[in-house]
From TrEMBL:
PANTHER family: PTHR34614, TRANSPOSASE IS4-LIKE DOMAIN-CONTAINING PROTEIN (PTHR34614:SF2). NCBIfam families: transpos_IS1634 (NF033559). It comes from the Bacteria. Coiled coil: none annotated. GO terms for molecular function: DNA binding; transposase activity. GO terms for biological process: DNA transposition. This is Transposase IS4 family protein. InterPro entries: IS1634_transpos, Transposase_11. It comes from Caldithrix abyssi DSM 13497. Residues 218-486 form the Transposase IS4-like domain. Pfam families: DDE_Tnp_1 (PF01609).
């Protein structure tokens, strides 16, 4: 909200009128202005009238323009909170929460507690207990820190997970509307997150030991799936037991997305960990288009394509090669069908060199350690097991055979296997039944999975998905959902900042320097606001927010 001077010309004379206006974004995302109140001609106002009007408005809010002649006893970060409040409104979070709260019987201020949980995750991720301390360092309009209670934060989390589907779906539809998008392309990937707390597992526990992307196989974990649009907008998340195989989650996710978002035609883009005969059968039978990663080592077709791709690259210099291949797939109940799939291979020289050097280093390290183990004063069988353990740890088992005789250990390098591996360095393969994309477009779309990978980085690092000290399934799921909702706000924030190429983290850092100061004067609590500088003002303008003023407090 701001004061606008409107000028018009009548009878060769310029007339000026004072108006109170506000900024908003239209349906195309353009910043527009609308008039809220006409104050009248500027020549009717004198300085005393302006001061009286401003001071009257401030007094109504318990504020003052007088100099800070008393000792300031509190300083709170505010600029980043003001931006988050704007994004919260833009996402219509208040209405989404209110619709679900209506029949819940909750009497405490649910929105204030959810806002505290999500804003904390974006500003200074911490435990629920430390969140209460964080509230003392920030100024959130409309929230009194003394009203936020630990037990209500937990109840707010319970509310979230009880209404996950409706809240998530409404928020996703709001994001799709804001960016005028549909769900024609669906990116899906998974990650894992381990637990710090050591609580005993119980029957049916969602925490399980499984394949850890964090290389913490010694810890219980959960598996998390995230669905995004082709433009990197997160619309849904899933939490699975820690021992759940990636490929076993795909059909459940697709059925859920179709049901919730009422979409029939979806093009699925997913990594090779989701590929299986059963999933291919499901995708074909349900009419999905797909672009899936394929292992360059695990199928005869892939090995054949890589061999042809290398020959094609040597002959033409082209780094993308395509072959149409007939592949037989079968369902769980034994039904078979032959389908034609596009196999597209793409080569990157830098990746090839990196993989080659990495493998050579691991081989040299293994051979050196093996010699050291052989010299140990232990029995031959123990040496054998130690060498096998190093081989496995270095991920080199398929390149060496280790044989134990009565008194010796022989290590044989598998030169043929190594040669095949070198030929696949730098190549990756996708398979697809989509025919409206060129081979280059197919590869480019598959590479857009980076949006999901970046999202996992945000969840794990910027938003501190871990450490997770919860141990009941309901609270574990709720913790992940809080992080996911914060992630959705972060994506909206960063997309609004695309015009100035600023990350949401950098924007938050800059805005934190806009602070609210508090002091005691004449028996009343007073508030003041630090100056908003050029960079901060630009951030507010980019996201469509007004500049904070004393009246914002």
């Amino acid at each position: 909200m701001f004061v606008k001077v409107s000028r018009s010309k009548r009878n060769n004379k310029v007339h000026e009128t004072l108006q109170i206006a506000e900024s908003y974004r239209d349906s195309n995302g353009k910043v527009r202005h609308r008039i809220l109140l006409h104050l009248g001609p500027t020549d009717k106002f004198i300085k005393k009238d302006v001061d009286t009007l401003i001071n009257g408005l401030l007094r109504a809010k318990g504020l003052t323009l007088q100099d800070l002649d008393s000792n300031i006893d509190n300083v709170k970060a505010f600029g980043q909170i003001w931006a988050l409040v704007h994004l919260w409104k833009e996402l219509k979070m208040s209405q989404i929460i209110a619709r679900q709260k209506e029949k819940s019987g909750i009497k405490f201020d649910l929105e204030a507690h959810l806002k505290s949980l999500i804003f904390n995750r974006l500003d200074d991720p911490s435990s629920k207990l430390k969140l209460l301390t964080w509230l003392e360092t920030v100024y959130i309009p409309g929230i009194n820190k003394d009203d936020i209670r630990y037990e209500y934060l937990l109840r707010a989390m319970d509310f979230l997970i009880a209404h996950k589907e409706k809240i998530e779906t409404q928020l996703a539809n709001r994001l799709l509307d804001l960016f005028n998008q549909d769900l024609k392309v669906c990116f899906y990937d998974l990650t894992s997150s381990y637990f710090e707390a050591e609580n005993s597992l119980v029957e049916g526990d969602i925490r399980q030991f499984g394949y850890s992307r964090d290389h913490r196989g010694d810890r219980e974990q959960i598996v998390i799936g995230v669905v995004m649009t082709g433009d990197g907008i997160p619309i849904a998340h899933y939490v699975f037991p820690g021992n759940k195989a990636d490929r076993s989650t795909l059909q459940e996710m697709l059925n859920d997305i179709r049901r919730r978002f009422k979409v029939k035609d979806i093009q699925l883009v997913a990594d090779k960990g989701l590929l299986s005969n059963d999933n291919l059968w499901h995708l074909i039978q349900q009419g999905y288009e797909f672009i899936l990663g394929e292992s360059v080592r695990q199928s005869k077709d892939a090995k054949s394509v890589i061999k042809e791709a290398n020959a094609h690259k040597e002959a033409t210099g082209e780094t993308i090669y395509e072959r149409l291949t007939e592949r037989e797939i079968k369902s769980k109940d034994g039904k078979k069908e032959k389908i034609k799939l596009r196999y597209v291979a793409s080569y990157n020289a830098a990746t090839a060199l990196k993989r080659y050097k990495n493998r050579i280093n691991r081989i040299n390290e293994f051979l050196e350690l093996s010699e050291e183990i052989k010299k140990k004063e232990i029995n031959t069988e123990d040496k054998y097991h130690q060498i096998k353990s190093v081989l496995s740890r270095k991920r080199l088992s398929r390149f060496f055979n280790v044989e134990l005789t009565e008194d010796t250990i022989e290590i044989h390098k598998q030169d043929e296997v190594l040669s095949e591996e070198e030929k696949s360095d730098g190549w990756f393969i996708v398979i697809s039944n989509a025919h409206d994309l060129s081979k280059s477009e197919l590869i480019a779309r598959y590479k857009d999975l980076k949006y999901v990978e970046h999202g996992f980085y945000e969840l794990k690092h910027s938003l501190n998905l871990r450490p997770n000290f919860h141990w009941t399934e309901k609270r574990i799921r709720a913790h992940v959902m809080v992080c996911f909702l914060a992630f959705q706000m972060a994506v909206l924030f960063e997309k609004r900042l695309s015009g100035i190429k600023l990350s949401w983290q950098r924007a938050m850092e800059s805005l934190r320097r806009v602070v609210v100061v508090e002091w005691e004067n004449e028996g009343r609590r007073r508030k003041g606001l630090s100056r908003v500088h050029v960079e901060q003002l630009e951030i507010f303008q980019e996201i469509g927010s007004s500049k904070p003023t004393l009246l914002s407090l």
